Structures are given as structure tokens and as C-alpha cells.
Amino acid sequence: MGIKMSWEDFARSMGVEPQILENKEARLLKKFVMDLKIPTHCQGCQGLDLSNPNPVHHPSYELTPACNHDCIFCYSNVAVKLGKAPKPGYYGWENPKAITVSQYGEPLLSPRIVEVNKMLRERFPEARLDLQTNGSLLTEELWEKLDFDLVMISLDASTREKHLKITNADTFDAVVNALRIVGSDESVRSVVRTIFMPGINDEDIPKIAELASSLGVDEMMLQPLTIHELNVERLRKAGLDFDRAESVREFLKAAMEAKKYIDVRISGCQLVLYQKMDHLTLFSARRVARDVVPLVKRERNVT
Questions:
Q1: Domain-wise residue ranges, the chain
Q2: In 3D, which of 236, 154, 234, 241 has the Cα closest to residue 190?
Q3: What is the mean pLDDT of the chain?
Q4: 87 neighbors 300 (Cβ within 8 angstroms)
Q5: Fold of 18-301
Q6: By percentage, how much of the chain surpasses pLDDT 70?
Q7: What whole-number distance in Å separates Cα of residue 42 and Cα of residue 58?
Q8: Of the listed ranges 14-28, 206-220, 238-252, the one predicted with least confidence
Q9: Exposed (0-12), middle (13-18) or buried (19+): which is 33, by Cβ within 10 Å?
Q10: CA–CA separation, 131 vs 64, rounded Å?
Q11: Are the CB atoms for 50 and 268 separated by under 8 Å?
């Protein structure tokens, strides 16, 4: 008859103290993930359903592939260079839960932004309208003409110098002003959208969170970096730590730091997956996000 041993006694019989087998950081990360909320932008998205074998993003209205920024990580830039950028128009279906304006290019460059905003509001009165912008062209005057439910403004640096290095545009003050405009408007959900680029903007992320919070911004949507082939050399020159960029643990630790200052959230499709993982799997998980060119998986309806 075998002798039953507790796992603690078994560990000691192998010469290992039990506490060594317990990964406290892993449990802390797991608790953090379980407490996170779905980003407002992701609510209603197909990606939240893990049983869906081929989920697609919310519908979008694309205005222009052009942009006044030239970010070192940008997928839209890659799509333009490879001739794969979507043409202007509505990409989606009838009765959408949300529509994003837009996922490619800078929508505020288009003279049609106010017109399209009004058209979408009239055509899809039940849909949440999300504006995704780099914020550099948003003024008080323009904001008064727009009508969105949520505004995501991209900011990946906490200083003018770092912002210039990442975007190749000297627009830091204008972006901060845009965050102030939307942050002070209680009728809209304001979000600062930040990409995790270890080696480039690690120290900036909590500072961005603190800055955005001080301006009244409601939420930070922290996203991991997808590395597109055409951007590899630019990212390398900027100092990207490619190994850490693929670590889920490093990404979540950055989110935890930002959480001290603002309501930080991570992409909903990632969150539901991470919440299913046990703490040790989560601790060692890697997100290998390499791509050649982003593609729109929704049909275009000319509008």
C-alpha cells in the first residue's frame, strides 16, 4: 500500500521548498486580468466570442488612407505601401452595434468627416459611433461639429522628443490638446490608445496614463505591438526589444503600471482568451504577432 504525501511533503522530499513552486507574480497577473473590464470600443465585437472561428472587427467607415503622421509601427502605412489600403466607403453590414471612423489613415484629414459623421448617425441611429484619430488635427471648432459616442486618440510617448521619434511629426502639443478637448466633454467616452513597444516607450506608458487622467480622459486602451515586415528595420533602429514585445507577461506588467493612474484596458479578444488561461500558462505565454499586410475582412458598401 503506497503512502500518500501532500504536495508540500513531496516537494521537500525532492529537496525543493514548497514556496518555490508557487509563482506569486503569476497569480498577481491572473488576478489583474480577471479584474479587467472589456474596453468600451470592443463591446459588441465578434472577437469576444471564443466559439466564433473567424471573428471580424466592428464595421468601419474609411475616409482616406492618408495620414500626417508616419509612425514606425503603423499597419496603415504598410497597407498603403503595398497597395492594400481600403478605398473610401463603409465596410460592414446592416444593423451594426458599432462603427469605427476609421481604421486606416487619419480621418480628420478628410473634408468629408463632418458630412460622413452625420450620414452615419442618420443611417445607423442605434449604432455606437467611434472615432479613431491621432488627434493632431482636432480643434475646439471642429469638435463642436462632430457627434461621436467614443473617441480614441493615439499617443505613444510622454514627451515631444519621443513623440517625434515615433511619429515623425512634431505634433505632441496638438495631440495633448485633443485629449484635453475630449476629456473635458462628459457627453463622450474618451480613450487614449497606446501601443506597447518595450525598449522604446516602456517608461512612457505610466506617464501617458497619468497625463491622460489629468486631462479628464476616461480610459486607456493599451495594445500589444503587431510587427509588420516593412516596419521591422524602423522598429529595430528605434530600440524595440523584440523578445519582450512578444511576452504577455511584460505586456500585462505595463498595463498594471498604467492602472495606477487610469482605467486601463486591453483588447477584448485578448482579454477573454487570457481570462481562460491558468495563472502559470498566462505567466509564460507569448504573443507572436508578425504580419506582412493587414487586410479588411468585411465587404465594402459604397456610401
A1: 18-301
A2: 154
A3: 91
A4: yes
A5: TIM Barrel (3.20.20)
A6: 90
A7: 8
A8: 14-28
A9: buried
A10: 14
A11: no
